[in-house]
Structure to design on (567 residues):
């Protein structure tokens, strides 16, 4: 049989097309396999599901027995709840009043008040244990609310408070005094900035520095630079990691836009490395080393604590080994490795996560505590990556601006902070950091175990998270018992406790007493009643059934009107 050249060409093109499609399909499959199986790993599905979940709530009866508790247990819980409510109403009266009044105008307060507990319990909790979000003073490791109650601060001001509030008050005062003559002049620089840049180069081991107003902006700039220099489009971030609230690094629930140039991959996974090796469109990989405490899990929040939660365990050697592998693949593929140290920078070690894990990044972002108590974001990077223009193409630039970048007051407070790092007093705080905080963790866990309480803590140095050792639908109640015992948590609740390094052994021992007392009271009030039939799986199944039931009921109401079937 004779093959015409046109036929041969046709088959050739066909074969090439099939081969290309198979290769593309395989790459797509590899990408899917490199995603974490949880919803956080699948932004689009998470978005759709979020829209599917209807609001419903438990009434005053079901609130106390949503886990199938007996009548007696529900009655115990109700009595405990009422007593706690009474404590709140009397002890925090003015703080609650001021919070409720301000919430009328502050959307942030409305949001944080609503998202403290799983939504099914929200209305009862807000009515009886209202938010008390105002404080008037800080001293040592304590905050004072509007009713003059002094409580231990476990919020760490979102991580900013590393060295103690008194330290930052002094830093801000000294810094302000230094730049008073200049005032808030922008566009020119106070000499402090040059010294800051030099000190940051030394700390980061990198060549250049740029200043921004927040951690979010620093991350935006680092990613922009990576895209500019690699001429590639995509950002890789790891499942669960927070990098600020800019669209491209926050795909999924919370961000109404669909991010099209972000891959969210599984952290500590060979499959993720395979994707990095194969894809040619990846500009950079973002790592938030805080995730070492709970890889692939979103920052734990009590509003999502419907069962015993995800757990946490930090393994320094394993995470360090992962970062080294990641470093090697990024170097091999000319992908920019960005360490986002906005949270952990200066907290794990003076040289941050790079020093702590012994791995060098190409770009590093800092923020929070580096501002010496004032708002800031910083990018440190390799000289070739930090450059914002091309010598041979003058019109091809990479813009980064911001009115308040390099504000003299911020630069001066930062200068005070960076100088303080070199003093023997601060040096002493960093000495045996992990040993100190791990011993404190063990001390609290031993007390909790001795009291037979179903609570433990896990930590990455001074960043802690509360874990629960038995299934329950009520773990989120612990935040209210802790507050009543004098421990202040941030609005996300027990998922994140942040200590400042100025906690003395005596301060910490007092916190342990309060913590154990709070958990003991919660235990006595019956919230951790053990139902052998209750597992995390059965809890999730119950909630899913409720959600589907509610959707169905709404559909029926829409079709039949008020649920009344016409005969
Ligand atoms: C790792 C990380 N990156 C970026 C950000 C965003 O910083 P900012 O809140 O200053 O915008 C945060 C904030 O918590 C963070 O933890």
């Amino acid at each position: 049989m004779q093959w015409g050249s046109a036929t041969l060409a046709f088959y050739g093109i066909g074969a090439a097309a099939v081969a290309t499609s198979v290769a593309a399909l395989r790459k797509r499959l590899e990408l899917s396999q490199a995603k974490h199986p949880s919803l956080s790993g699948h932004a689009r599905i998470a978005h759709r599901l979020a829209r599917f979940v209807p609001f419903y709530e438990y009434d005053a009866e079901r609130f106390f027995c949503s886990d199938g508790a007996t009548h007696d247990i529900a009655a115990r819980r109700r009595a405990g709840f009422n007593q706690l409510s009474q404590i709140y109403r009397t002890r925090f009266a003015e703080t609650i009043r001021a919070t409720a009044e301000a919430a009328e105008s502050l959307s942030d307060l409305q949001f944080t008040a609503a998202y403290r507990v799983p939504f099914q319990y929200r209305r009862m909790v807000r009515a009886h244990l209202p938010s008390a979000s105002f404080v008037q003073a800080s001293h040592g490791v304590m905050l004072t609310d509007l009713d003059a109650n002094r409580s231990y601060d476990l919020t760490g001001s979102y991580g900013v408070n590393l060295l103690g509030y008194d330290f930052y008050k002094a830093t801000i005062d000294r810094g302000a005094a230094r730049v008073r003559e200049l005032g808030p002049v922008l566009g020119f620089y106070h000499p402090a900035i040059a010294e800051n840049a030099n000190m940051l180069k030394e700390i980061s081991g990198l060549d250049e520095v740029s200043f921004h107003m927040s951690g979010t902006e620093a991350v935006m700039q680092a990613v922009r630079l990576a895209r500019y220099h690699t001429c590639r489009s995509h950002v890789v971030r790891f499942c669960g990691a927070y990098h600020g609230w800019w669209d491209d690094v926050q795909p999924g629930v919370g961000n109404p836009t669909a991010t099209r140039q972000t891959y969210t991959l599984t952290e500590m996974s060979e499959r993720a490395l395979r994707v990095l090796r194969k894809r040619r469109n990846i500009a950079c990989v973002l790592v938030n080393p805080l995730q070492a405490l709970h890889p692939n899990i979103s920052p734990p929040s009590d509003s999502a604590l419907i069962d015993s939660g995800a757990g946490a365990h930090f393994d320094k050697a394993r995470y360090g080994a992962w970062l080294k592998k990641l470093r090697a693949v990024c170097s091999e593929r000319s992908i920019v490795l960005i360490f986002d140290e906005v949270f952990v920078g200066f907290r794990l070690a003076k040289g941050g996560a790079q020093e702590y894990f012994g791995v060098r990044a190409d770009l590093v972002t800092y923020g929070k505590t580096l501002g010496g108590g004032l708002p800031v974001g910083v990018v440190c990077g390799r000289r070739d990556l930090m450059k914002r223009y091309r010598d041979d193409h003058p019109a091809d630039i990479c813009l980064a601006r911001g009115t308040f970048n390099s504000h003299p007051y911020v630069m001066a407070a930062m200068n005070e902070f960076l100088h303080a790092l070199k003093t023997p007093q601060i040096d002493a705080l960093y000495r045996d950091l992990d040993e100190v905080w791990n011993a404190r963790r063990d001390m609290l866990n031993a007390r909790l175990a001795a009291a037979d309480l179903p609570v433990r803590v896990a930590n990455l140095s001074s960043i802690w998270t509360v874990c629960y050792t038995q299934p329950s639908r009520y773990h989120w109640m612990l935040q209210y018992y802790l507050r009543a015992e004098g421990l202040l948590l941030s609005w996300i609740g027990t998922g994140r406790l942040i200590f400042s390094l100025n906690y003395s052994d005596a301060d910490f021992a007092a916190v342990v007493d309060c913590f154990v007392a709070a958990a003991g009271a919660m235990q006595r009030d019956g919230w951790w009643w053990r139902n052998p039939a209750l597992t995390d799986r059965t809890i999730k199944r119950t909630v899913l059934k409720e959600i589907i039931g509610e959707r169905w009921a709404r559909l029926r109401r829409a079709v039949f009107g008020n649920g009344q079937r016409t005969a």
Notes: The pocket of pyridoxal-5'-phosphate is lined by residues 158, 214-216, 219, 242-244, 288, 340, 342-343, 367, 377 (CB under 6 Å). DSSP finds 19 helices and 16 strands in the chain.
